[in-house]
Amino acid sequence: KEVSQRNATKSEKIVSTHKKHKERIKRLSEEEKEERLKMTGYVTNLLGYKTSDNNYTMKPPASLFQRLEGLRCGEYIPTGKDTGIEYPYDVIRFTFMAMAGNIRSALKSVDFKDESHKINYILVIIEKNINDIYASVLRNKKAKEKLDKMETDFNPEVADRFINTEKPKSAELFGDDMW
Q1: Distance CA 100, CA 83 (A)
Q2: How far apart (Å, rounded) are the C-alpha atoms in residues 133 and 14?
Q3: What is the pLDDT of residues 97-129, one digit of tens each?
Q4: Average pLDDT of 35-52?
Q5: What is the secondary structure of the chain as a DSSP string?
């Protein structure tokens, strides 16, 4: 009886976690939904579940999508807890893009015992590199913001004083009697 109660409690937690996760996805902005779609499309294509013309060759396992969502919030699979970590979907996609060579090499050379092993192996590659890619994205974003600020601070009147000045003739600079 005690074992069945524990199993029932475990099942309730799983259902509750799944509901929280589904609600979190529903709250995504349109831009986030689009980025999520791009990310899952790229990953399924890279892992061979999808061809380049977006036709599925095999159905991707649900565990792949769970792991990707878990990765987004800094967990193995999403539990619904607020971890304080939230990688944007584009960062996850950029990490897969940056590691595509390593992933392709692993897909060709490693003998995976099953699909779960393959997904876990690939996600370890991503987890080891996502912080570096995220830091790079943040640096690029900061540099772009700085550049945009410089462009808005640009004053054409001040620039014209330096750009459009005529160069004085030597006589004007040194006087007529110099030569």
Answers
A1: 28
A2: 32
A3: 999 999 999 999 999 999 999 999 999 999 999
A4: 88
A5: -HHHHHHHHHHHHHHHHHHHHHHHHHT--HHHHHHHHHHHHHHHHHTTSB-TTS-BSSPPPHHHHHHHHHHHTTSSS--S---S----HHHHHHHHHHTHHHHHHHHHH---SSHHHHHHHHHHHHHHHHHHHHHHHHHHHHHHHHHHHHHHH--HHHHHHHHSPPPPPHHHHH-GGG-
Strand partners, 56: 50
Lowest mean pLDDT segment, chosen from 22-26, 82-86, 90-94: 22-26
Query: pLDDT value at position 87?
Result: 94
- Look at the block and give the residue holding tokens 């029932």: 8
For residue 95, the number of C-alpha atoms closer than 13 Å in the C-beta half-sphere is: 24
The 10s digit of each residue's pLDDT in 163-179 is 655 555 555 555 555 44
Measured distance CA(146)–CA(140) in Å, rounded: 10
Helices (H) and strands (E) in the chain, counts: 8, 0
Do 57 and 47 meet the contact criterion of CB atoms below 8 Å apart?
no
Q: How far apart are CA 133 and CA 164, in angstroms?
A: 43
Of residues 63 and 179, which shows the higher confidence score? 63
